[in-house]
Fold this protein.
Amino acid sequence: MTDRKDLIVGNWKMNATHLDAIQMIQKLHYRLEVEDYDRVDVVVAPPFTALRSAQTVIEADHMLIELGAQNAHWEESGAYTGEVSAPMLAKLAVGYVIVGHSERRQHFEETDQDANRRARAVLANEMTPIVCVGETLEEREEARAEEVGLSQLKGSLARFDVTQLGSIVIAYEPVWAIGTGRTASPDDAGEMASFIRERLVDLGNSEVAASMRILYGGSVNAGNVKDLMAKKHIDGALVGGASLDPDKFAAIVRYRL
Ligand code: PEP
């Protein structure tokens, strides 16, 4: 038995105005029971423009939904037009920040070093980084999924001490499963999560590795979540498309083994 509490994160990507966000969060809140939050930490990550409204509605109605952000710059402030810093997010009661998402890597040429710098800033501001790793279809077909995952892990987690490592969440997201409706089989996802945990032992130690949460992401929905979450080393999900519909997202949160 493990005492890792499941974590389910809705990554809204570049969707929802601040007005949409208020409605979506209210609907999600009404669809969940207090007991759901005993089993699962529930996080939504709206676009930056909706964070302030999301924070206000969550606090005003004493909701148990937590707030995430989709990225953070590594500098605290300065001449970085268009960027948002970790202290700015922390001030908005953001608890989790996604870093190294494959869409950032693919469309904005972000590297493991960028993910590492972002994760460092997130931790320094007492938030939890969600570090994303995962192979492309080509890499999986070449049987390089583990090699790629390991290299991304090593790069993104470079020079963290053991205590810092223990405060990080890893999301295994095979690129070919993101937004495609094509989910990794529970066995494949479970094997990768197990591989990642073994590597976390090497990067930290067995106690820290056993305490860290590893999420699966890639076309998770209410129909497949249960089989994925049944895998010993999968401790939750990073959900894109299905998190935009409060009914679907609530059903994912409320899966039961
Ligand atoms: C994601 O954005 O991290 C994701 C997993 O998206 P989707 O659930 O739509 O595949």
In short: Residues 186-203 form the longest helix (18 residues). The longest strand covers residues 6-11.
